[in-house]
Write a structure and sequence with these properties.
alpha/beta, 7-stranded parallel sheet, 9 strands, 38% helix
């Protein structure tokens, strides 16, 4: 299986990449990055790309992929709706259109979030934007799975790019085992999310298209 990952340098993308590298069914991982990962691995091939709204110059590299894991995203903190929409919605749909050339057998996994608003009408700006993004992806000509994790604990070297979140994770890391016992339906790890992404590629389009935290933990158990 040939997988393309967008956002492999981020916290969630780190988990997706780890899962791909450890899975024997994944034969190649194409990572689309702005800055090289400098990762030497026989499965990995990097493409450094600067414009996340236009993939015309690398379209040929994307036409034969079997799965796309879209992990690129930002916090809504400090961003207005226009900027957040450009990064969260526009970047995602541009990538989806580019990989859609692979055909209806493509599996597209989008990492959204707990609380996403499918009605697109709620008060929360980030939830509306992610809801719109999910809805448009689900209408596209491929099999799509929307991941809605709750709190994600970074593990095995995964690091958030948001300074505030990095500080939060340092505080909560020792508490994660307790959180997992108290609210298992609302917490997960970067590795579990990554393993669940690989797992849905084996479902052949079965199961719900929107996966919540419990679904992710069940598929990503290991």
């Amino acid at each position: 299986m040939r997988v393309v990952i967008f956002g492999a340098s981020g916290m969630v993308g780190h988990g997706a990449l780890r899962a791909c590298l450890s899975d024997d069914d994944v034969t190649e991982v194409l990572v689309i990055v702005r800055t090289p990962l400098n990762l030497a691995h026989p499965k990995v091939r990097e493409i450094v790309h600067s414009d996340f709204t236009d993939y015309a110059d690398i379209q040929g590299e994307l036409k034969d992929v079997d799965a796309c894991f879209f992990c690129l995203g930002v916090s809504a903190v400090g961003r207005d709706e226009e900027e957040y929409t450009r990064i969260t919605h526009d970047y995602t749909l541009a990538a989806a259109r580019a990989v859609a050339a692979a055909g209806p057998s493509l599996i597209f996994v989008y990492v959204s979030g707990e609380g996403t608003d499918s009605t697109e009408k709620g008060r929360s700006m980030w939830a509306r934007v992610k809801g719109r993004t999910e809805n448009e992806l689900l209408a596209m000509p491929f099999t799509a799975y929307m991941f809605r994790p709750g709190y994600i604990q970074p593990v095995n070297g995964a690091v958030s790019k948001t300074r505030l979140y990095r500080a939060l994770y340092r505080v909560t890391a020792p508490l994660y085992p307790l959180l997992r016992r108290l609210i298992p339906g609302h917490v997960t790890t970067t590795d579990a999310v990554g393993r669940a992404m690989v797992a849905v590629t084996r479902l052949d389009g079965r199961g719900p298209s929107v996966l919540h935290n419990r679904d992710i933990n069940r598929l990503g158990a290991g």
